[in-house]
Design brief:
two-stranded antiparallel ribbon; Endonuclease, Chain A; alpha+beta; 195 residues; four-stranded mixed sheet; 35% helix
Length: 195
């Protein structure tokens, strides 16, 4: 309450670290630090024995809360572990691209449609609704849009988790939109054509 509504609204919890000081456990893992390993094992044992009951165990978010969390995470999604690259189009516009495959495809797009854009996650004008097998509603945002082709592109280096099924659902439920999935073989074919 103090942090949200009282004098604590302006409190900086990192004020002690502004001078370069770091947390004692920064970079430590239970694999490398005996005290963290012991704490981890103690916690697991207490959960297993029932001495500690995790606060959210057996509970579930409401549908509204899940949708709100999903929307917030989508807008703030910084992507996975791929490195980000700043890419300058021929017209001087800069975009941040995720991973070398997106950079390689951007070079191709410069030749196919110089007006292409990299879509930011959560951009409503370029996001599409889809419903999963559990009747849950989701929002999907492709990687690129080519206005001259009126076509979207999704660059897929790897299929993570249930991504393949998700993309099948997105495409089948948004048949009025052209979405092309660019896999490794497709990227290489584009690069041969548009050298």
């Amino acid at each position: 309450m103090w942090r949200k509504h009282g004098d604590g609204k302006n409190h900086n919890p990192n004020s002690g670290y502004d001078n370069g000081r770091t947390a004692w456990n920064k970079g430590l893992t239970k694999e490398h630090d005996p005290s963290l390993k012991k704490a981890s094992e103690t916690y697991k044992a207490k959960v297993k024995s029932g001495e500690i009951v995790p606060s959210f165990l057996g509970k579930h978010h409401s549908k509204e809360t899940s949708e709100r969390i999903s929307a917030k995470l989508s807008v703030n999604n910084k992507g996975g572990k791929c490195k980000w690259f700043e890419y300058q189009k021929k017209n001087g516009t800069f975009f941040n691209l995720q991973g070398t495959w997106e950079v390689r495809f951007a070079v191709v797009l410069d030749k196919i449609d110089p007006d292409w854009i990299k879509i930011g996650v959560g951009k409503k004008s370029h996001s599409f609704e889809w419903i999963d097998e559990n009747k849950q509603s989701h929002s999907y945002t492709p990687d690129f849009y080519c206005p001259n082709l009126n076509k979207y592109f999704e660059v897929k280096g790897y299929w993570w988790g249930d991504d393949k099924n998700k993309m099948q659902q997105v495409i089948s439920q948004n048949q009025n939109v052209q979405i092309e999935i660019v896999l490794k073989k497709d990227l290489e074919a584009y690069e041969k054509i548009w050298r």
